[in-house]
Specification:
By secondary structure, the protein is of the alpha/beta class. It has one domain (about 5-250): 3-Layer(aba) Sandwich (Rossmann fold). Helix content is about 45%, strand content about 15%. The chain contains eight helices and seven strands. It has helices spanning about 15-25, 40-50, 65-80, 105-135, 160-180, 200, 205-210, 225-235; strands spanning about 5-10, 30-35, 55-60, 85-90, 140-145, 185-190, 245-250. Strands 3-2-1-4-5-6-7 form a seven-stranded parallel β-sheet, sandwiched between helices. Strand 2, helix 2 and strand 3 form a beta-alpha-beta unit. The protein is globular and about 50 Å long. The protein starts with 5 loop residues before the first strand and ends in a 9-residue tail after the last strand. It binds NADP nicotinamide-adenine-dinucleotide phosphate. NADP nicotinamide-adenine-dinucleotide phosphate (NAP) binds near residues 34, 35, 194 and 198.
Length: about 260
């Protein structure tokens, strides 16, 4: 049995997911980089890891589809032989930012399927695998880390479906944390603030201004590596007596100030 732990990162091709993949590879994990459509970006992430002496594999899967999730986990076990850490990072913004009174059911279903339902059932399937591995003595513990958002508790009325998906994800974290502790699997939520990625490229000017005006105590954009470092800390087991915990990576956005 390969003694090197394996981390699966959904949406690992670009942005925050890439930052997480790089940080986990530096931690000594073999990283399974999942992507949906952007093979070139996924290959670039793998190249960056390999350049630093790390090891990674790629696997295409649309996490909003059950058959794809199953194939992704099968690929992980068949190719890498184990799964120690699942990072549920893949996510989408609404295709169009629309006022709450204009939000469509189509957009709601797409965003909630991708950001929330996929994580619930991906965690369920991965947890079954992890429990099996732990019971057979192949690994001693495992972890699931969900990438939510400050939108889990911040009402943005022009992307309500996104906020709903991330608020739901916070409960998914709590539920699986409560259920899986007895098996030696800790579950965490990493809650990014405003991070510079493709997802936020279209609202750069708006957020530049807000950050300059003091929206966040730490006056800068977050970077994918900021989130990567938080995930790596959790993945290497730095919080063994904590589960269901939230780590804000938001420059202090969540602080109430007067
Ligand atoms: P991004 O730059 O748009 O990258 C999204 C990633 O998710 C890509 O790797 C993409 O794969 C993948 N993905 C999208 N839909 C997928 C699907 N159905 N199946 C598999 N993979 C899929 O976004 P990001 O800013 O890095 O965001 C990553 C996560 O952080 C998301 O959950 C997002 O909600 C959350 N977040 C972001 C911010 C922010 O400010 N950027 C703040 C808080 C939370 P392809 O490359 O193949 O398209």
């Amino acid at each position: 049995m390969n003694g090197i732990p394996v981390a699966l990162v959904t949406g690992g091709s670009r942005g925050i997911g890439r930052g997480i993949c790089l940080a986990l590879a530096r931690e000594g994990f073999t990283v399974l980089i999942n992507y949906n459509s952007n093979l070139a970006a996924a290959e670039e992430t793998r190249d960056l890891i390999e350049k630093e002496g790390g090891s990674a594999e790629l696997c295409q899967a649309d996490v909003s589809l059950k058959e794809h999730r199953d194939l992704l986990l099968d690929f992980c076990m068949e190719t890498l032989g184990r799964l120690d850490v699942l990072v549920n990072n893949a996510g989408i913004a609404p295709p169009q930012r629309l006022d709450l009174l204009e939000t469509t059911e189509e957009s709601f279903d797409k965003v909630v399927n991708t950001n929330l339902k996929s994580v619930f059932f991906m965690s369920q399937a991965a947890a079954r695998l992890m429990i099996g591995q732990i019971e057979h003595g192949r690994i001693s513990s495992a972890a699931i880390i969900n990438v939510s958002s400050m939108s889990a508790y911040t009402a943005s009325i022009n992307r309500g479906e996104y906020c709903v998906s991330k608020a739901g994800l916070s409960m998914v974290t709590k539920l699986f944390a409560a259920r899986l502790a007895e098996h030696g699997i800790n579950v965490y939520e990493v809650r990014p603030g405003i991070i510079e990625t493709d997802m936020t490229a279209g609202v750069k000017d708006k957020y530049d201004k807000l950050i300059n005006e003091g929206l966040t105590p730490i006056k800068r954009w977050g970077r994918p590596e900021d989130v990567g470092r938080a995930v790596a800390m959790l993945a290497r087991g730095e919080l063994p007596f904590s589960t269901g915990e939230v780590v804000n990576v938001d420059g202090g956005f969540h602080l109430r100030r007067l």
